[in-house]
Amino acid sequence: MSLTELNQRFAISNHVQFKEIADGIVIAEVSNQHANSNIALQGAHIATWQPRGQEPVIWLSPLAKFAPGKSIRGGVPICWPWFGPHATDSKLPGHGYARTVMWEVLETKALTDGSTFLRFGIVETDAARAQWPHASSAQLEVTVGDKLRVELVTRNNGRESFILGEALHTYFQISDVAQMTIRGLEGCDYLDKVGEPARRTQQGGIVIESEVDRVYVDTAADCVIEDKGLKRAIRIAKQGSRSTVVWNPWTEKANKMGDFGDNGFRGMVCVESANAFDNLVTVKPGETHRLVVEYSVEAL
Q: Is the pLDDT reported for residue 262 higher than 90?
């Protein structure tokens, strides 16, 4: 669908406009009385969300590259239909292919409370089917308001069950990693992926002072990022998710990636709502699985 057709069918005055920001990269620019947000059609990738009167809540690297087939550093990448490396084929892309393929706009709607609703569907291709030979569909439903609600919807359209791994790999903007503590995972077991993989139990709140890459399992709890520098807390409330991933690459790894910017890792942390490792989901024929997350900001 051309940019003109997108705007004719799905633009909403004072809510949604579609713009091309780079060759082949179109975004839905959402602006309403509650917040601003940009969502790229490639990957149905929420790049930004900023409630009015607040600092941005979703972190986007100043060096983020918007290019066809390339993942975007920051925002809310969608890990689907597997999380981490593929179980049997290491040549397939880590975290699946959903974040680098095109999604189509299925619906936009202005809600009565002034929020904006958008629904996207993954575009099926032969290349995608070669990686994921299951009759299925994925949609992303986004409600942009004073809260950001994101629903990743997977339906099994086939005759056999399949195993699903997934995550909303959300990057949050913080004042400085030294000013931040993550609450809500106290007492949870996690797989520590830094160095030799090990299974540990979280003691107290999460304070980050070096590289962190952890998958917390068997938890449906809210997480709260307490940010003393910005005097706010970001609440992450989820449904249909039994894993939470916490990630910060720290100095050496961020420098190798090349798209974080100088000390960019200090101004972000990933708290990902997921189903991974111990918590993979079996989706039976005809069933639909929904991973739902709502992000909100509270005074600290």
A: no
- HSE of 8, CA atoms in CB hemisphere, 13 A: 5
> Measured at the alpha carbon of residue 148, what is the angle toward residues 41 and 55, in degrees to the nearest 5?
100
Strand 103-110 vs strand 78-79: parallel, antiparallel, or unpaired? unpaired
Q: Which residues contact 94 (CB under 8 A, 6 or more apart)?
A: 84, 85, 86
151 in Cβ contact with 140 (< 8 Å): yes
CA distance 131 to 126: 9
**Residue type, position 132, single letter:** W
Cβ proximity of 147 and 52 under 8 Å? no
Q: Which residues are catalytic, by number?
A: 169, 272
Q: Where are the domains of the chain?
A: 3-299
Domain 3-299 part of CATH 2.70.98.10:
yes
pTM assigned to the model: 0.97
Return the bridge partners of 68, or none: none
- What pLDDT digit, counting tens, does each position of 52-97 carry? 999 999 999 999 999 999 999 999 999 999 999 998 998 999 999 9
